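quick q for whoever's on today - can somebody do inverse folding on this one?? i tried earlier but teh output was garbage lol. tokens:
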């Protein structure tokens, strides 16, 4: 996704990873393909698949490129990717530019064989690690921090007896957020960062093991959800079954899952760490109704991630729930124009108000977040032009005040409307009748007893991050 597109779409998604290993020797490429389709919401910039035949030559076959899954792969290309072990990736660039070279999975050949690596997340010490590798002779082919991880695993493998031990040693060096799916000549390995910031789960279909960023991808591949990969866990799948290493795990109160998975990123039919995303968003909407009641005629949600929270608001408030928008699913995210007037037009082409639903009514409009405020203002303008007499905005996340360093593309402070304006000022700027944000204290109700990261709202990062002296906060949190 280019810089211009980010200006109009606000938040950027994360990436999605998928892996499969058929112990009976069957082709896993179709399962990876369907899994990536189910994860397309996590990244629309590029995608790729890498497979190998563990029973044959063990040569890695791969294809990747810019675009959606159905742009990069067709029936002919999938026919060429035959293998019983493979990994896949859909990408949204959080680190590294938007170019074909940065598409994943990364396939590296080294003295011990071949590794195919798919990564979701962002490292906070990638630059330092990259410099260290460069000064010892490493030559990088990409600008993504995933290649830093791959190099460290490959180098550690020279000194230990297994890939799992190499991964463990690499984990001692890398800092940040990561969910990794790694294909080696005879193993499929899943890795989740010790804080559990990025999600990863395990599925099973007959004698095929599956790893995926979200449970919805496991279902799409025709498999059954088994469990989540635990924070800090290294799980490996071989012909002998499953092996787990928890030596890198931390205590439960140190874990810091990304709260935005539940607010926005994950699909509503996914369950992450035992918490169903749909129910989490219903709870968010109910909390908004408790905190910010208002007299209105209709509750509507902004598609897609605002819809479920809007239903929750409706259930709690007793105000009827309605569908006020038609979303044009055939307009890609690349429909972006350079001028501000054209950016506003792109919102209208992607989203249209149904006048018969809103005319003459007081509307509660629920959305998942507000970054710069321009999109929200455009939608309010469209509602009022269609005849809505009032528009009361409710946001199912707290105000964005701080950037994210762990893979969510929250812009720098100067682009965050809440960083320099009060809610009252924002309400006036977007021409809303009232405005209410989710209260930070109520986020925990969304996810039960899970520990989570809310640094983009509070500035309390779960680990030291570049350019911020948070050592005192870090000591307190650990």
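ok took a stab at it. sequence:
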């Amino acid at each position: 996704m280019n810089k211009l597109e980010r200006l109009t779409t606000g938040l950027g998604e994360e990436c999605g990873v998928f892996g499969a290993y058929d112990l009976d020797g069957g082709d896993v490429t179709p399962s990876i393909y369907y899994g990536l389709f189910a994860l397309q919401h996590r990244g629309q910039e590029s995608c790729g698949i890498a497979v190998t035949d563990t029973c044959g030559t063990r040569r890695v076959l791969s294809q990747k490129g810019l675009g959606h899954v159905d742009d990069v792969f067709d029936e002919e290309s999938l026919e060429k990717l035959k293998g019983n072990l493979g990994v896949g990736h859909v990408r949204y660039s959080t680190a590294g530019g938007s170019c074909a070279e940065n598409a994943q999975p990364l396939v590296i050949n080294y003295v011990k064989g071949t590794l195919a690596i798919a990564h979701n997340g962002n490292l906070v010490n990638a630059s330092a690690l990259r410099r260290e590798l460069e000064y010892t002779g490493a030559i990088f082919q990409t600008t993504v921090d995933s290649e830093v991880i791959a190099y460290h695993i490959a180098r550690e493998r020279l000194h230990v007896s297994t890939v799992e031990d190499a991964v463990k040693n690499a984990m001692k060096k890398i800092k940040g957020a990561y969910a990794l799916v790694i294909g080696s000549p005879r193993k499929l390995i899943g890795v989740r960062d010790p804080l559990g910031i990025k999600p990863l789960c395990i599925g099973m279909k007959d004698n095929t093991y599956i790893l995926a960023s979200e449970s919805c991808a496991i279902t799409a591949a025709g498999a059954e959800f088994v469990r989540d990969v635990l924070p800090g866990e290294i799980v490996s799948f071989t012909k002998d079954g499953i092996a787990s290493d928890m030596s890198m795990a931390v205590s439960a109160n140190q874990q810091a899952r990304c709260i935005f998975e539940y607010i926005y990123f994950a699909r509503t039919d996914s369950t992450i760490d035992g918490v169903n995303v749909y129910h989490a968003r219903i709870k968010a909407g109910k909390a908004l109704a408790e905190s910010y009641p208002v007299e209105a005629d209709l509750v509507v949600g902004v598609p897609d991630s605002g819809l479920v929270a809007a239903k929750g608001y409706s259930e709690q408030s007793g105000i009827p729930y309605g569908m006020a928008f038609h979303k044009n699913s055939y307009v890609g995210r690349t429909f972006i124009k350079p001028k501000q007037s054209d950016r506003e037009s792109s919102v209208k082409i992607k989203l249209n108000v149904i006048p018969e639903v809103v005319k003459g009514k007081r509307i509660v409009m629920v959305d998942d977040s507000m970054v710069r405020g321009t999109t929200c203002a455009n939608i309010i303008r469209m509602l009022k032009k269609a005849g809505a007499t009032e528009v009361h905005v409710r946001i199912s996340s707290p105000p964005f005040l701080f950037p994210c360093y762990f893979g969510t593309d929250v812009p720098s402070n100067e682009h965050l409307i809440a960083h320099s304006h009060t809610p009252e000022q924002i309400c006036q700027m977007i021409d809303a009748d009232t405005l209410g944000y989710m209260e930070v204290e109520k986020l925990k109700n969304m996810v039960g007893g899970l520990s989570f990261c809310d640094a983009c709202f509070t500035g309390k990062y779960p680990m030291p991050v570049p350019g911020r002296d948070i050592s005192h906060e870090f000591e307190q949190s650990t």
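fwiw The radius of gyration is 23 Å. also The chain has two domains: 12-250, 276-448. so keep that in mind when u check it
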